[in-house]
Amino acid sequence: DYPHQLFLTGDQIYADDVSPVALFALMDVGQFLFTGNEEEILPLIQAPARTMAPGSRTEIIRNKALLTTTHPHNHLLALHEYAAMYLFAWSDVLWPDDLPNATEVWQAYPDVRPDPADQKKAEALYHVDEEKLADFRSRLPLVRRAMANIPTYMICDDHEITDDWYLDGKWYQQVLTNQLGRRIVRNGLLTYALFQAWGNTPAQFADTPGMTLLAALHAWRGQETFNWTQTIEPLLGLPQITVPPLSIPPQALQWHYTYNGPRYQVIVMDTRTRRLYRSPDAFPGLLSPEAMQNQLSPATRRDAEATIIISATPLLGVDLIESMQFWSHWRVRENYAYDREAWSLDWGTFQHLLKTVSNLKRVLFLSGDVHYAFGASLQYWDLHRQMSARIIDYTSSPLCNEGSGAQLAILAVVYPQIQQLFHRDGDSGQSFFAWDIPTGDHSTLNALLPLIRQRLYLFWWAIPRLLAAHRSPDEIVMPSHGWLKGTFHDHPPDRSYHLHYLRNNLTEREPEHRLSLTQQLAKGKILLSRFALQTLTWLEGSVQSIRKRLLRQIPKIAQQPESIAHPTHSLVNTTLRRTERAERHLERRRDRLVVRIIQSVLRQNRWKAGNMIIGSNNIAEIRFRWTPEEQEVMQFLWWYDGEQENILRVAQYRDTLEPPALDSAPPLP
Question: Is 184 left (phi over 0), alpha (psi -120 to 50) or beta?
Answer without folding.
Answer: alpha
